[in-house]
Amino acid sequence: MKRLLLIPLLIVALACGCIGGNDDKELTIYTYDSFVAEWGPGPTVVPMFEEKYGITVNIVSMGSSGDMISRAILEKDDPKADILLGINDVQMYRAFSEDVLAEYRPDAYEMIPDHLVMDDQWRLTPFDYGYMAIVYDSQKVDNPPTSFEDLKDERWKDSLIVEDPRTSSPGLSFMLWTVAAYGDDFDDYWRAIDDSILTVAPSWNTAYYGMFMEGEAPMVVSYSTSPAYHLEYEDTDRYKSVIFEEGGFVQIEGAGIVNGAEHEDAAKKFIDFMLTEEFQRELPLTQFMLPVNPNVELPASYEIVKTTDDVLDLDRTLLATHLDTWTDDWIAAIGG
């Protein structure tokens, strides 16, 4: 879950000491804004790594993960980054198709549950994940929809805020959740819920903080971990989530080493470090996502987080060939 952050491209130096020329003592990471925000994990985990290994880390914040991939593609003949951090399992095939990531299987790979492994070539190592969900305001909704089919009911007219899959990672995952549930007929489903949708927002920030939290609609597409934020920091369980009974949909985030990285050895150390308990325990209350290390104890606020073992299967290898068509079908379905 990414909280509101509206800032331009910037370089954030989370470093102790001057940048030297020793390949083993320097590392550059491209990531998204929220990772390096003051409330994100970056300001905590990066100094941990620097102190442990004596490696200076320079983080370049790219705004979004899509921007990060685009920059890496432009630079692939002369890479400036050593690591791309924050590519999800929906976006990863764009990076794979452009051959910007190198293979690296981390030391602790065997502890990662099989269903969270992003790539059998280990071009990406998963570090967190979350279940897509409908988050609702329990002061306005007594009995939320429990299935995709329920959402068609006229009682939900203008009740749901969704994000645009062309510009929002959760929006894209929600669209793919409907593809997993309905297959090629997913666009008919979107036509069927047209009256239930209040608006299509350009980003999760706009949808969640700019509209849902302002009371414009009682439901929003988000992650099942979102209510834990409100319980942890606002001491309220007013906001709850539901994962539809047809089956859940998981979004996984990973990090990978750039092909031709100048500081490959340092990059491998950081990838290994990301799977340690000291790194992973920082994620639930900063990223508000679930850690991939099964040994990490979750905060008490996660008692309200919904999960499911019944996850819908979507062959993500189809994304490379079908995503544009699915997106066009979605645009036609919503009349965009």
Please specify the SSE layout and strand pairing.
Blueprint lengths: L9 E3 L13 E6 L1 H4 L5 H12 L2 E6 L3 H10 L8 E6 L3 H6 L27 E13 L22 E4 L5 H14 L3 H7 L4 E5 L2 H9 L6 E5 L2 H9 L4 E4 L7 E8 L6 H11 L2 H4 L9 E2 L27 H16 L2
Parallel strand pairs: 2-3, 2-4, 6-7, 6-8
Antiparallel strand pairs: 1-3, 4-10, 5-8, 5-9, 5-10, 5-11
Helix pairs in contact: 5-6, 6-11
Q: What would the average pLDDT be, to the nearest integer?
A: 91
**Oligomeric status of the shown chains?**
single chain
Low-pLDDT windows of residues: 1-22
According to DSSP, the number of beta strands is 11
The global form is globular
CATH class identity of the largest domain: Alpha Beta
Structural class by secondary-structure content: alpha/beta
What is the CATH architecture annotation of the largest domain?
3-Layer(aba) Sandwich
Return the CATH topology of the largest domain.
D-Maltodextrin-Binding Protein, domain 2
Order of helical and strand elements = EEHHEHEHEEHHEHEHEEHHEH
* Count of the separate structural domains: 2
In the CATH hierarchy, what is the superfamily of the largest domain?
A: Periplasmic binding protein-like II
* Major beta sheet summary: 11 strands, mixed
Radius of gyration: 20 Å
Helix fraction by DSSP (H/I, runs of at least 4) = 25-40%
Which percent band covers the strand fraction? Answer: 15-25%
End-to-end distance:
26 Å
Number of helices: 11
